[in-house]
Amino acid sequence: MQLTDKEMAIVLQAEDTMRRAKISRIILLVAMLIGFAAMLVGAVKPDIFAYCSFAVVLYAILLPQFGGPPYSEVVALLTRIRSETDAQKVDPLIDVLTRNT
Length: 101
Fold this sequence. Notes:
The protein is 76% helix and 0% strand. By secondary structure, it is mostly helical. The chain has one domain (5-99). Helix 1 (5-41) packs antiparallel against helix 2 (46-62). The chain is elongated, with a radius of gyration of 24 Å.
């Protein structure tokens, strides 16, 4: 199966977006742990930490949507790949008989 240049660009862009999202999530986790420690020692008020935590979680969930290929393009590509690779189901008995000949 051959991918066009545009489809290959979509795949590469999606991979890059996921890689950046993974790194950003690790950085956000470290920032949350530092914020939690700051809250425990009294440097940050608990309500401010709660608001910031909610914003960080929302950002981490939405992160793959920022800068990546549109969802509709990815679905169209996967649909085309699936339609090209769909094999017609063959009866197992017929498959065994035709393999031996």
